[in-house]
UniProtKB/TrEMBL annotation:
SMART domains: HNHc. The lineage of its organism: Bacteria, Bacillati, Actinomycetota, Actinomycetes, Micrococcales. Residues 427-446 are annotated as: Disordered. Residues 332-384 form the HNH nuclease domain. It comes from the Bacteria. This is DUF222 domain-containing protein. InterPro entries: DUF222, HNH_nuc. It comes from Microbacterium limosum.
Amino acid sequence: MHSNPVPASTPWGDDVDLAARELAERYVAARRAEAVAQAAVARVLAEAAELAASRVAALPRASAKDAELPVRAVAAELAVAAREPDGAVQRQMGEAAVVVREFPAAMTAWGEGRIGARHVRVITELGTPLVDPVARGAFEAEAVRQAERMTPRRLRAALAPMAEEMQPGSLTERHRAARERRGVWTTMLEDGMGSVTIVQPAVIVDGIHDRLTQQARAVKNLDPTDTRTLDQIRADLAADMLLTSTPNVETGEGLADGYGGLGAITAIVNVTVPALALAGVTTEPGELVGKTPIDADTARELAARAPGWDRILTDPITGSVLAVDRYTPSAEMKRHLRARDRHCRFPGCRQPAHRCDLDHSIDYAHGGKTHTGNLAHLCRRHHTLKGETAWKVTQHGGGVLQWTSPGGLTYTDQPPTPPHVRFVAGAELDDGGHPGTTRTAEPPPF
């Protein structure tokens, strides 16, 4: 019995696929160039960290707060020039300084394109706890050797046992210290989505996932017609529990308020939406203020559940805010500025306005007036940066801010274009049918 050979022209033939090989070679070359460029960025960041450290050292008896200000100022100088968040640049400065100072072999391999940024991250994360220079040097040499032939994930698995053996303290002691770094972070993703990262001891994280899995399977068993995947049900259950569950204890010493402690805290949703989208005429997205766009259906759902709206009238041509429905001067001014700014006005920052301070561009103590042409929302980080470092801001009318860095570079921050209608979940009407006080509204169950 004879079999027909597979033609060499097909993708699964025995002949060498020269096109695929060429792509692979070009890909490897591009990734090596990328690694070299990333290493060059890390060296610049490390130099910036060194410059900031020298300025901190020159301060006479600096407090912890004063000592951070030169670091913030240098980070902001780099970040605004590159159109990046200054907080992230400040963190990267610290990380780069550790690699350059403590892991020279890894830095050299990275700069030559022999390993990538993810390899370096694994090496530094596992090697940093090794305080003995001899042990760290031996670990680094072996880590670089293995990194040149492994993926980052396999590298971590290969190095973790070796790093554990070289650790000076017990795992119990290190775990106790690591617990102090637990926390929760949010990241806004594309298409109106977001993620929540929770850092807790591994046993708790595993328990959380296991409980969600068991509950998700129970939901599937109870309703075989449910078309959601197990992952989707887990995500829905986690969101439902975090948004609606009430803690059954007064969490933390000194936090009891007599009204349920943490159980009295509910979510506040601050959203903007175009009027035509609200009416269902268009599908223009709304916005989770200062964070990310949201789809029109979600915005309409939030609007339907809001006890009341705050209406803002805008110029039909320029979109500039003209008036609001509040008549108490101070409240009207605040609402006008929240509508104009919507988030922190330092270049690149997106901290929502309701979490920011209203700052006088020209200090009140120096004759600055309390009016909308001299006020802007700044988050606490950038409010401090403006007040305590050489960063300066000037207003040019219409909410346009011009920032000048300590290095003399200037950056213009334009106010966001406001939507025609804005509502805030939680606003309610007074007895006369006018916008009155606000209260927390229950978020939608999705």
